[in-house]
């Protein structure tokens, strides 16, 4: 029997993030793992298409939310005196490249945050890692898992499935990865490796 708490909120609203942590603690008494998976992309074509509102929305959801949710998680975890905690950031292969669009910039910042936070959080018993998926079946990408998953121009020639990314996340929060901290694991069939074929 597994108990589940569903909390609907806005990761850009810090008060809601604190409430989510508080409600989870009230139900389960502690939190061991945080997976920062919320994200949006407005798919602008270039810097010329970016609006201030769109910029703020993407930075609020993709960077500010995970940043302050991680802070709330760490404050709580540190107070317990426990060890063996884990934070996973879901960034993107876009975070591994240079970019001029808000989505890619937020994901590059999340990659930096992952490595910047890893050594500090480890002192309080929490490992920090990230996965960097390529284009994955989701509402955000608009790709239907029952549709055509062919994607020319990628190493594997296809769109990835969410469960493929989830398996890597499960590994990173498991005891099998206890020696891994500050890693950003690309989950894109090598698409991030720049080679001329």
Summarize the structure.
By secondary structure, the chain is an alpha/beta fold.
- Radius of gyration over all CA atoms, rounded: 17 Å
- Total beta-strand segments: 4
Share of residues in strands: 5-15%
Mean pLDDT: 91
Order of helices and strands: HEHEHEHE
What does this 3D model show about the protein?
With about 200 residues, the chain is of the alpha/beta class. The chain is built from 4 helices and 4 strands. Strands 1-2-3-4 form a 4-stranded parallel β-sheet, sandwiched between helices. Strand 2, helix 3 (about 100-120) and strand 3 form a beta-alpha-beta unit.
Provide keyphrases for this structure.
39% helix; 4 strands; 197 residues; 4 helices; four-stranded parallel sheet; alpha/beta
Helix and strand arrangement:
Elements: H1 14-28, E1 33-36, H2 52-80, E2 85-90, H3 102-122, E3 126-133, H4 162-173, E4 184-187
Parallel strand pairs: 1-2, 2-3, 3-4
């Amino acid at each position: 029997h597994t108990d589940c708490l569903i909390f609907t909120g806005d990761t850009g609203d810090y008060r809601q993030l604190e409430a989510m942590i508080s409600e989870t603690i009230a139900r389960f008494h502690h939190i061991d793992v945080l997976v920062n998976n919320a994200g949006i992309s407005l798919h602008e074509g270039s810097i010329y298409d970016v609006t201030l509102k769109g910029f703020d929305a993407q930075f609020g959801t993709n960077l500010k939310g995970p940043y302050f949710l991680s802070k709330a998680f760490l404050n709580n975890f540190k107070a317990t005196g426990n060890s063996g905690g884990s934070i996973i950031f879901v960034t993107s292969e876009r975070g591994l490249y240079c970019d001029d669009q808000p989505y890619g910039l937020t994901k590059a910042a999340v990659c930096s945050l992952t490595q910047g936070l890893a050594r500090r959080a480890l002192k309080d018993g929490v490992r920090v890692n990230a996965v960097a998926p390529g284009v994955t079946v989701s509402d955000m990408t608009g790709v239907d898992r029952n549709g055509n998953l062919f994607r020319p121009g990628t190493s594997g020639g296809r769109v990835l499935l969410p469960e493929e990314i989830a398996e890597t996340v499960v590994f990173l929060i498991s005891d099998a990865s206890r020696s891994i901290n500050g890693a950003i694991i690309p989950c894109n069939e090598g698409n991030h490796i720049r080679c001329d074929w």
